[in-house]
Design brief:
Layout lengths: L1 E7 L1 H5 L3 H10 L3 E8 L3 H7 L9 H8 L4 E8 L2 H9 L4 H7 L4 H5 L8 E3 L3 H11 L7
Antiparallel strand pairs: 1-3, 1-4, 2-3
Bound molecules: adenosine-5'-triphosphate (ATP).
């Protein structure tokens, strides 16, 4: 069993996609271990996306991620990281609509930035990101 961190980003929450996304999660056989709603501020959003701090889109990304509450969830199943990345589709929702029409980002995303969901990109990132939102959940 593996864990991954999922975010329903502020655009996904505002667009009322939470229930549809959760249904997909449960139908796909994930266990939802934890869930919380949180409003990020500039500092916490910048910390979460620190790997992108030198990118041109960073300030826009921080503004987007702080634009409203998001929902963080810890999912568990075999190969959870890859399984969730497969379900959400490519980063750019425009691309997702063409190449992965049944993906979550095709359903609720708008463009390269507003793509409605996040998924950890490796088991190592998952552990870091899970402790970021759920301080009491340690690795393993
Ligand atoms: P995530 O980490 O959120 O699951 P990802 O791994 O598909 O997304 P990353 O390359 O890690 O994509 O980028 C993190 C987030 O930054 C993206 O999900 C998107 O919201 C935003 N982003 C990425 N590239 C761009 C860009 N070129 N312009 C604007 N926003 C971007």
């Amino acid at each position: 069993q593996e864990r991954t961190l999922v975010l329903i980003k502020p655009d996904g929450v505002k667009g009322n996609y939470t229930d549809r996304i959760k249904n997909t999660i449960l139908e796909s056989g994930f266990l939802i271990l934890r869930e919380r709603t949180q409003q990020l501020n500039d500092e916490t959003a910048a910390k979460f996306y620190a790997e992108h701090s030198s990118k041109g889109f960073f300030s826009s990304l921080v503004k987007y991620m702080t634009s409203g509450p998001l929902i963080a969830m810890v999912l568990e199943k075999d190969d959870a990281v890859a399984a969730w990345r497969g379900l959400i589709g490519p980063t750019d929702a425009h691309v997702a609509k063409v190449t992965h029409p049944n993906s979550i980002r095709a359903m609720c995303g708008l463009n390269m930035e507003e793509n409605c969901v996040h998924g950890s990109d490796s088991p190592q990132s998952a552990e870091r990101e899970i402790s970021f939102f759920f301080e009491d959940l340690s690795a393993g």
